[in-house]
Amino acid sequence: MESTKAIKRGTRILTEKPFAFVLKSKYRLERCDNCLEAAKVLKCSNCRYVSYCNRACQQAAWPLHKHECPFLKRVQPRVVPDAGRMLCRLILRLEHGGDLERGYYTEHGSRKFRDLMSHYAEIKNDAQRVEHLDSLHAVLTDMMIDSNSRSTVPNKTELMSIYGRLITNGFNILDAEMNSIGTAIYLGVSITDHSCQPNAVATFEGNELHVHATEDMPSLDWSKIFISYIDLLNTPEQRREDLKAHYYFLCVCSKCIDPQEQLDMNAAVCQGCAAAIDVEQPKCQCCNASVTAEQRQNYTETMSLTQSSLDAMKDVAYLDMCKVCLKKQSGVLHSLNVWHVKTLDAAFEAAIDVGKWSDALDYGQRLLPGFAKYHGAWNPLLGLLHMKLGKIQLYERNYKHAVHHLQEAHRILNVTHGRGHRLLHEQLQPLMLQARQEMSL
Ligand SMILES: [Zn+2]
Ligand SMILES: [Zn+2]
Ligand SMILES: [Zn+2]
Ligand SMILES: [Zn+2]
Q1: Domain that holds residue 18
Q2: Which of 113, 182, 222, 308: CA 20 to 30 A from 31?
Q3: For the MYND-type domain, which residue ranges apply (predicted)?
């Protein structure tokens, strides 16, 4: 039975502990394997593979870790791929009663691991997935050997059904700044479908998942609750590709079927009236100015430079490279062209990295409309952008602007993370207090 009580924007509609989770291996020496907190950590004295922030965390992790500990010890000093470690944990979890465990999404509605979609047939026919699973199978075979020297890896059919559920239902655990720090399976929340125009959002506190409503809802009806599985700062074409490759479905959300969305995201700017235009059209729809061959040529060159530069900066953004792109885009791409927005995003992060605060402020301000349009008005990334802008303004002693951005951040993060979240207590509220104090001096 579903609750018939109306849900207000900002209400937490689900709190869930993971069925299984792993910390990303690259954080092994700086975060706790149990609570995922960044801290001074101490290694498990047996496997020396995982670390904990304190004894309480080590003890809390032991019931599960004790099964994997000898396996991790076997492969030391090699690092197990994150997906391999996750599979190992899932196998162990299922071996020790996890197949009966339920994750609840309402008082009475629940799911078990076997209720999760596995997309078995699609995965079996996906050469890349099969190859990936084969490599993980080899890792597990090396690792999962019991005290009688027997392999405890399930047969390939079983392994593929577990792998399929992991691929289709796995969540990235995000830290407060929305960086991925781990992978997890949550049973209850797996009921939630995807939309590129979601009405709910998943955020995390440690390894605990929280889902908050970002729109008012007449009642708690999980068939009408959607979160986004993917990066929304992408064209419908890319989003559909991502969803198809990862989740094996074709998105038919209102945004994906709206042809205007694709046009807006790739728009050039009209030389006459600065409206968004489609360079394939002969004229601007607004002012009738002709689109010249030169303009088309320029557009094609700019888009290709931008796309190849963004590709090259996938892992780390360079301020100089961003500046070259932004210069080329000026007067060619519309301000809401998604590739321009992505470039601003990269430039903003790169400027922060090298401490160029006035550059960062400029890029960040220009980023706001694009973020609001594509991520949506109630998205954590928009809230975090305001928080970063507020922080920089505070640095630059522009207290009035700082307070404005911090208030905006608070308005959004209060909904997406909830008022009790540490991000608000430990970061946002102290900044706000400081900005107000400085302003009144
Ligand atoms: Zn801990
Ligand atoms: Zn251990
Ligand atoms: Zn969609
Ligand atoms: Zn025009």
Answers
A1: 1-23+79-257
A2: 113
A3: 32-69
